[in-house]
């Protein structure tokens, strides 16, 4: 795969949007992770945040430390010599303890019925796979992960919920994720994790980063609560 001519677009006084691709493809990820790594090295203390997606990288910097024009010039230099990550650096493996239960995962039954499977088989299908983080977005710390097994893939809800509880583990088509905080959402809820997915006091804020490998590890309700999870059923949150 070759890299088409990237575009650098203004994203305000303190940001540049680097558009590497025009279409979503799993093959994009080595290029994006390579650019993330090189931006960290090049911009150092001037870098405030980076938000990668399937096709772009938003670079946010401190304009009191570095001029916007200087950042653009550095990005141009990085892009001129960019090579995709070769996979030699082993991606981090993050395990997310997950309580799978219809009380917190009401779409377990929907997915099982659609797939002609039992709820236990849906849980097994989701928890035995290893997922890659392809993008961060929608909400701080929300990681788009794939790919979910085709057998348990399920379309988004026709009507999104106004309030999805923090930590909810969900499926949409062949993607999976966990909600970092309470928010609206239309994904199929199948469980809940007690993991803190976004923390302003954590280096990098987000627990998950693009390129990470993720496993959802089934735990009991008691284990979930011991880890700090909120087991209040969905019905009580209407």
Characterization of the model:
- By secondary structure, the protein is an alpha+beta fold.
- The protein has two domains: 7-80, Gyrase A, domain 2, CATH 3.30.1360.40; 93-237, Cyclophilin, CATH 2.40.100.10.
- Helix content is 21%, strand content 27%.
- It has helices at residues 29-43, 68-80, 108-115, 119-127, 221-226; strands at residues 7-10, 15-19, 47-52, 56-61, 93-98, 131-136, 143-146, 161-164, 168-172, 175-178, 183-185, 188-192, 213-218.
- α3 (108-115) crosses α4.
- The longest helix is centred in the first third of the chain and has 15 residues, at 29-43.
- It is elongated and about 55 Å long.
- The termini are far apart.
- The relative contact order is 0.16.
- The mean pLDDT is 90.
- It comes from Halomonas halmophila.
- Keywords: ATP-binding, Hydrolase, Nucleotide-binding.
- One of its GO terms (molecular function) is ATP binding.
Key phrases:
alpha+beta, 2 domains, 238 residues, Gyrase A, domain 2, Cyclophilin, 5 helices, four-stranded antiparallel β-sheet
Strand segment tally = 13
Structural class: alpha+beta
Total tally of structural domains: 2
Q: Please, what is the average pLDDT?
A: 90
CATH topology of the largest domain: Cyclophilin
Summarize the structure.
Keywords: ATP-binding, Hydrolase, Nucleotide-binding. The chain has helices spanning 29-43, 68-80, 108-115, 119-127, 221-226; strands spanning 7-10, 15-19, 47-52, 56-61, 93-98, 131-136, 143-146, 161-164, 168-172, 175-178, 183-185, 188-192, 213-218. The protein is built from 5 helices and 13 strands.
């Amino acid at each position: 795969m070759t890299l088409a001519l990237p575009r650098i677009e203004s994203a305000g006084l303190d940001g540049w949007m680097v558009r590497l691709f025009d279409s979503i493809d799993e093959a994009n990820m080595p290029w994006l992770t390579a650019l993330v790594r090189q931006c960290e090295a090049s911009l150092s203390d001037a870098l405030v945040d980076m938000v990668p997606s399937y096709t772009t990288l938003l670079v946010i910097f401190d304009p009191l430390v570095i001029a916007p024009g200087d950042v653009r010039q550095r990005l141009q230099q990085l892009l001129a010599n960019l090579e995709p990550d070769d996979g030699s650096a082993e991606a981090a493996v993050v395990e997310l303890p997950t309580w799978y239960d219809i009380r917190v995962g009401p779409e377990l039954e929907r997915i099982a019925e659609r797939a002609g499977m039992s709820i236990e088989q849906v849980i097994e299908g989701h928890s035995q796979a290893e997922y890659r983080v392809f993008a961060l977005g929608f909400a701080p710390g929300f990681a788009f992960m794939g790919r979910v097994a085709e057998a348990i893939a399920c379309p988004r809800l026709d009507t999104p919920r106004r309030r999805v509880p923090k930590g909810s583990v969900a499926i949409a088509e062949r993607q999976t994720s966990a909600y970092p905080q309470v928010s609206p959402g239309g994904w199929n809820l199948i469980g809940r994790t007690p993991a803190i997915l976004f923390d302003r006091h954590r280096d990098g804020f987000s627990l998950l980063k693009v390129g990470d490998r993720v496993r959802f590890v089934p735990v009991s309700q008691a284990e979930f609560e011991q880890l700090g999870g909120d087991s209040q059923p969905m019905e009580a949150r209407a």
